[in-house]
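User: Here's a chain of 279 residues. Predict its fold as tokens.
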Amino acid sequence: MGISGPSNIRNTGPILLRESIEHATRNALASAKLPLECLTHAVLGLAGAATDHDITTITASLSQSFAPHTELQITHDLKIALIAATQGSPGIVAVAGTGSACYGINSNGDEARTRNDDIGSGYWLTRHALNTYSTNPSSSLARKLLKHFGASSLSHLTSITQKAPKDTLAKFAPTILQVATQNDTDAQRILNAGAQGIATLICEVNKKLQNNSPKIVLAGGLLENCSAYRDLVIQILTDNLETFEICQHPLTPIKGAIALALITAHGEIIESHWKQLTR
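Assistant: Prediction complete.
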């Protein structure tokens, strides 16, 4: 495995992205004691690779990063996460961490994804918590907001959070989850709205794909680490979908990228390859 820095083209720009990819590739190959020239296929599942323009920009920035004979495939991180979790079967993946997104594929190979407005994400939850402060400044959630951001008043809190990066705001989301378990009605309402939003994204993608009994992957920090939030989403899905299957033990997205490279190289992935990947 090779570990490197950020690779979201929308945050890094093409130069830092190229440096991060090249560094990770060198580290992985060095660990495996393999030369760069041995790569026949390379699949990169990257956050930020959401449009054809993104992929064209990324491909151009990596034009000299691999051997000329290496077939390079750029896709988004949701696709490799889904392939890893379902082992190549049709399904839907919803991710809720700092941001949120939803993507799926059906048995015909049709793909669909939803709008990206971060609904139900850590950033979204915190923004809604901030909006409730003015209406209920004496609530437990309001006090937690002041303490977390080191603010002394609503105006001070607004000043601190107004231009704060998404990842900074998202760090307050676990506190919202904690306060909700203490019967804070504002926190509970926000969580319910966030879970409803994520479930709606999943249902929208499923409607586009017309999957029967879809495999659903709930990924990202909030859905993987906060069982109460995950359970809320599953309950809402139960009320809206006749049948579905939650994938409980997904492989890592890295192994999803390996699987996609094998599929690209051989047209399919055989059982023995899946067995190696699941070790």
